[in-house]
Amino acid sequence: MVFSVTKKETTPFDGQKPGTSGLRKKVTVFQQPHYLANFVQSTFNALPAEEVKGATIVVSGDGRYFSKDAVQIITKMAAANGVRRVWVGQDTLLSTPAVSAIIRERIAADGSKATGAFILTASHNPGGPTEDFGIKYNMGNGGPAPESVTDKIFSNTKTITEYLIAEDLPDVDVSALGVTTFTGPEGPFDVDVFDSATDYIKLMKSIFDFESIKKLLASPKFSFCFDGLHGVAGAYAKRMFVDELGANESSLLNCVPKEDFGGGHPDPNLTYAKELVERMGLGKSSSNVEPPEFGAAADGDADRNMVLGKRFFVTPSDSVAIIAANAVQSIPYFASGLKGVARSMPTSAALDVVAKNLNLKFFEVPTGWKFFGNLMDAGMCSVCGEESFGTGSDHIREKDGIWAVLAWLSILAYKNKDNLGGDKLVTVEDIVLQHWATYGRHYYTRYDYENVDAEAAKELMANLVKLQSSLSDVNKLIKEIQPNVADVVSADEFEYKDPVDGSVSKHQGIRYLFGDGSRLVFRLSGTGSVGATIRIYIEQYENDSSKTGRESSDALSPLVDVALKLSKIQEYTGRSAPTVIT
């Protein structure tokens, strides 16, 4: 059939500003007539013509509610805007890391490669008719659109008057694999529905030693549990862990992707991954069942991860440091060495200590994966991570939850390679304790104060900046609060000059750095009409190996006291306790 192109008149919607993680709103907002179409057309208009006309784009996501409708709308708009072909993961499912891999790696039967992708996800936010939906655009390197592009998209959303759509193009059956060809005013247009997992699994097999992981999983002493939280990771879990690596299917929890994530919150942390936490022996109820040796979870779009040992939680900051410290021996992809490592500024300095000891290039960047992407594109960084459960490497340009799980399984396999027939395996806890003995321990916690009055939050931050003008006064104050806490040796408002493109990111958080390697960091996020979120990151460094096994809350207590009193958080916000402690 020949489709025709319709120009639809429209008017702008307020607030279509995409962050680094795209545009996120309630489903009901996206369901308004023209809302999604305005944003998609604004994106097409922001891209160079050659990345639209005659190009190949990917359209898929985490399968949350409204995804199936959105894929059809975007496909019809792509056809009308002169795109040559659209690639869709079967049932609209592709994890965010898989999309990045597909842009970078996949070559279709006709030799085509993708120039970008619309990813439909609101990451770890809940899904369903009254919950969240999101859309973001990734570029030809597989990474999120840079600010220069997202600023242009936002600018276009404020002036848009029309969009193009092929209304008479029939809906494509996204459950059936294969290519459907249509003809339009500019010639042929293809929709290629392909298997969600094949390309991604192929990439993972080129990075990791699947045979050694298989041997570990086959050991009667090793048990494993993976929780997909009913997100898109479920589209990969059985194929990866059961079919390829030989794990038992009973080791998979919540691995059927659902539009509403089974009514849960697909965020892999100790609060929301309740079932996994219980199974790993970290829940409140005591069970007679022996927990597995290793547990992990991924979020809605499978770019975040949580790693657990038996009755043992690995902090994301420790996780990236441990992966970096063990990558060269354990993971074939890194056998020739690491180009460098990087972390987001609020993430603990555990990675810094590894970098210093192993003589690796090290970068501290603002929060946002695009900063890592720049370093990776320039060949300066191999492994990176952030405290908010994101870990990754230069195999793609997104964080990657399943990659992190495979990295940990690789480290466990390497540590146990001569020990699979022995009495006791080296455990996750053993690996972490050994790491602390070698590099010291960064006790770490994050306090979130949500929906705080925005003006009060700004005043609190301004006061913290003002205090920095006299460190001697700051140290006097601190000694009055907690006499045994080390002196602050430097304090600043974090600013980052990108070593690749020279761009400068200012006001990225307030830092107080102590003489013993400890840190306090204060950040403000979401200063909208609903109020602001103040985040306080508290980090106590301990390199005396006789003191690295303390309860985290005890070790952090003096510094927590300093953070709360120095910031006068209760005075400014009226809050006597944080909303969330991580």
Describe this structure in words.
This protein is an alpha/beta fold. It has 18 helices and 26 strands. It has a 7-stranded mixed beta sheet with strand order 2-6-5-3-4-9-8, with helices on both faces. Strands 20-23-24-25-19-26 form a 6-stranded antiparallel beta sheet. Strands 11-10-12-13-14 form a 5-stranded mixed beta sheet. Helix 2 packs across helix 3 and helix 10 runs parallel beside helix 11.
Strand content: 15-25%
Q: Number of DSSP strands?
A: 26
Helix content: 25-40%
Mean pLDDT: 94
Terminal CA distance reads: 55 Å
Please summarize what this structure is.
The protein has 582 residues and is an alpha/beta fold. The protein has 18 helices and 26 strands.
Structural topology:
Elements: E1 6-9, E2 23-26, H1 27-30, H2 35-46, E3 56-61, H3 67-80, E4 85-89, H4 96-105, E5 116-120, E6 132-138, H5 147-157, E7 162-165, E8 178-184, E9 187-194, H6 198-207, H7 210-218, E10 224-227, H8 234-244, E11 252-253, H9 274-279, E12 294-298, E13 305-309, E14 312-314, H10 316-330, E15 341-344, H11 350-358, E16 362-365, H12 369-377, E17 383-386, E18 390-393, H13 401-415, H14 428-439, E19 441-452, H15 454-467, H16 471-481, E20 488-493, E21 496-497, E22 504-505, E23 510-514, E24 519-528, E25 531-542, H17 552-567, H18 569-573, E26 580-581
Parallel strand pairs: 3-4, 3-5, 4-9, 10-11, 10-12, 15-16, 15-17
Antiparallel strand pairs: 1-7, 2-6, 5-6, 8-9, 12-13, 13-14, 17-18, 19-25, 19-26, 20-23, 21-22, 23-24, 24-25
Helix pairs in contact: 2-3, 2-5, 7-13, 10-11, 10-13, 16-17
